[in-house]
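Minutes, project check-in
Item: structure for the 436-residue chain
Input as provided by the requester:
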Amino acid sequence: MSKFVIEGGNRLSGEITPQGAKNEALQIISATLLTSEVVEVNNIPDILDIRNLIALLGDMGVKIVRLDEGSYSFQADDINLEYISSDEFVRRCSSLRGSLLVVGPLLARFGKACFPRPGGDKIGRRKVDTHITGLISLGARFSVADNHKSYMLECSGDRLSGTYMLLDEASVTGTANIVMAASLADGVTTIYNAACEPYVQQLCRLLVAMGSRIEGIGSNLLTVYGRDRLGGAVHNVLPDMIEVGSFIGMAAMTRSSLLIKNVSRHNLGVIPECFRRLGIGIEERGDDLFVEAQSSYVIESSLDGSVMTVADAPWPGLTPDLLSVMLVVATQCRGEVLIHQKMFESRLFFVDHLIDMGAKIILCDPHRAVVIGLDHHSELRANHMHSPDIRAGIAMLIAAMSAKGTSVIDNIEQIDRGYERIDERLNALGAKITRV
C-alpha cells in the first residue's frame, strides 16, 4: 500500500489544467458497448478507476486502441457473452463501482446483465435501487444470486420496451444507466426526476451523435426515443469540475496565486460562487480561473447574521463531491460555517483527522459539521492519516499541504482512483509531495 509524505507550508504558483472528468468518462466508456461500430473518446483521465474499466471492457472482448495520450477508440463488435455471465466477471466488477454503468448497455444490447453489490468508496450505504427499478420498468426481470452477493437482470422479451417512469432520486449513475438502456428500447421512454449534471448531458449528446433522439437534455425531464441500433461517434470529455474545485481549495489553503486553465466555465455551475462565499477571490479570465493569494478569507454570514450553511443539492446545486474540500478550506477562513452533507452518511467522518491537526470542527451528526475558522492565526499541525475515499483523501492532502511539518497519508490508492498523477502535477507548482 503506497503513501504520500507531504512537507507542508509551501506556497504554489503557476498554472494547472484539470484532467478529463472521471464521472463523465466512466459513463462514456460504458456507452461504447451500445454499438458494434467504433467510438472515439478524447480527454480520458489516466486514473485507476478508468484504467480498471478499460481493462474490464478489454476482457469482455471490446477492441481498444490507444490513439494518443488520453484518446482511445472502442469497438464492441465481438463481445464474449459467456464471460459477461461468469463468476470472474462479477468478481472483477465488485472492486469497481463504475462497472455498474455497463449494466444498462449490456441489458439493452444483449438481453442480460450480471453485476455484484456495489463497491467503491467507504462513504456509507450506496443504493442501486434507482438503477434496478428503472431497468425493471423498461421490461427487465430481476433476480438475486449468491446470498445477495450478485444480481441478474434479463429482458423479458426480445427487447426492452419504452415506458414512463419517475425516479425515486435524481441519481446521476442511475439516470445514465436508464438513458443508455432506453436508447435501444422499443418505443419512447419518459424519465421524470432525471439527473441533469453536465456529465449526464454529455452522455446524452454522445448518444444523439450515435443516432439516438433525446429531448430535454439539461433538464429533469428526459424523453428518449429508442432505436434498433446505434452507430459510431467521436466524443470529447469535459474538464473535471471536482479537480477545478480542489485546485481552488489548494490555492486558498496555501495562500497561493494559481491559474486554472480551460475549466469549461459554463459547466461549473455554482462551484466558483460557493468558494467565493468562503471569502476566496476568483477571477474569470475567459475559460480560465485565477485564484489570487490573500492574507485572509472571510466567510459570508446569512442576511440575518446567522451562520452560513453550505449544502449539496441536485444539479444545478453544489455537487457533494466538493463538500470535503470546502470543509477543509473553511478551517483556515475567518468565521463559521455549517457543512451539510445530505447524500452520504459517512463522508464527514474524516474530520477526526482534521481535529487532530488542530482544526476547530464540531461534528453534529453523520451529515452535518460546524467549522470555526482559524483565519491562519493557528496553523494546522502535521498528522498521519488514512484515506477512506477519494474526496476525503484529496481534502486530507490539501490540509497536509498547508500544515506545519511533515504529514503522511496512507491508502493513497483511493486518491489515485480520482486524480491523475496528482503528486507530480502539484510538485510542479511548488508542493513537496513524495510517493513512497
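Outcome recorded: The two ends are 9 Å apart (CA to CA).
No further action items on this chain.
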